[in-house]
Amino acid sequence: MKITLIAGARPNFIKIAPIIKAIEKKQSEGIHVSYRLIHTGQHYDKNLSDTFFEELNIPHPHVNLEVKSGTQAEQTAAIMVAFERELLQNPCDLVLVVGDVNSTMACALVAKKLNTKVAHVEAGIRSGDMTMPEEINRIVTDSISDYFFTTSTSANTNLLQYGTPSKNIHFVGNVMIDTLYQNLNRISLPDFWETYKLEPKNYVLLTLHRPSNVDEEQSLIALLKGIDEMAGDKKIIFPIHPRTKAILGETPIQFKNIHFVAPQGYLNFMYLIKNSFAVITDSGGISEETTVLGIPCFTMRTSTERPETITVGTNHLVGTSTTNLQKIYSEFLEKGLKKAGIPEFWDGKASERILEIIVTSYQ
Ligand code: UDP
């Protein structure tokens, strides 16, 4: 069977890497399964794209659609036009999409309209926040997929509530955590480690890129000032996303504790998470990685599509104001880390389960 794999943005590359390894494992067992890897070009910055292909040994994509950036509609439309051409020229049995970016939704739509089956990895998660472009991408993708590979029991429940047939829902675990386990023994300290006199637990790692936090310059600066004051004796390491950098301009304001660094490659970033005192972020994927690594995480959002990172893991949902962040962070300093565990099936084997299900259903 032929599978077309879609990857467009940083979190996609991290999720697709172990799926490719699982396909190659099936091939080595003599199973007839081949793949064609499509990079839509949604992320094209070296730091957000090529670095991940190199570090995670992802094969060179068979094609790059080079859509680059644009408004939501421009980007989605460009991906659809380019991917329709690609899929007509190179038909397959199944298009596999991951996560919740525009490439996920756009390619799922194209595939379905060409009567090709769609598998969605990380199906069913919902924040309930329709102002997030990702939430719309999730809902649309899940409304037309054929295989739903889920990371959590809450995702299963959401899908059932939307009327998804239970036979199509496969609770397999988390491919992002597959990548984490596959690379934990390769993580490496970043070159600024000495420059900023970093030591295990003497810094907090910060990432912010969601429009609700970064699109308005003055509130972003107020947020950073609040975090800077809260830091106490900890340094703050802030790998700054291009979107956030564009808002702050080329010369970021000076802060007492915050050190701005470039977006990090996967191996350096995992080293930074693993050795941090805590993480402050608005990323969904990072709250999963901190959960598995047992690192306290403070999510600067009002909702999460990954509730298990809070109920089972180390994540705290703190909203978007620094007042609430400071309150919850102080409680953590006083009481220490809440008792935390690892969600079911986040064991590094999700991709193998996915491949087993796909291959078996085509035999
Ligand atoms: N990440 C990284 N370098 C960075 C920031 C994030 O490698 O400088 C990784 C992070 O560990 C996670 C993924 O990128 O695996 C999350 O991407 P992002 O926050 O862009 O997406 P989200 O999870 O919010 O969809």
Automatic annotation (TrEMBL):
<dbReference type="GO" id="GO:0016853">
    <property type="term" value="F:isomerase activity"/>
</dbReference>
<dbReference type="InterPro" id="IPR029767">
    <property type="entry name" value="WecB-like"/>
</dbReference>
<dbReference type="InterPro" id="IPR003331">
    <property type="entry name" value="UDP_GlcNAc_Epimerase_2_dom"/>
</dbReference>
<comment type="similarity">
    <text>Belongs to the UDP-N-acetylglucosamine 2-epimerase family.</text>
</comment>
<protein>
    <submittedName>
        <fullName>UDP-N-acetylglucosamine 2-epimerase (Non-hydrolysing)</fullName>
    </submittedName>
</protein>
<dbReference type="Pfam" id="PF02350">
    <property type="entry name" value="Epimerase_2"/>
</dbReference>
<keyword id="KW-0413">Isomerase</keyword>
<feature type="domain" description="UDP-N-acetylglucosamine 2-epimerase">
    <location>
        <begin position="32"/>
        <end position="358"/>
    </location>
</feature>
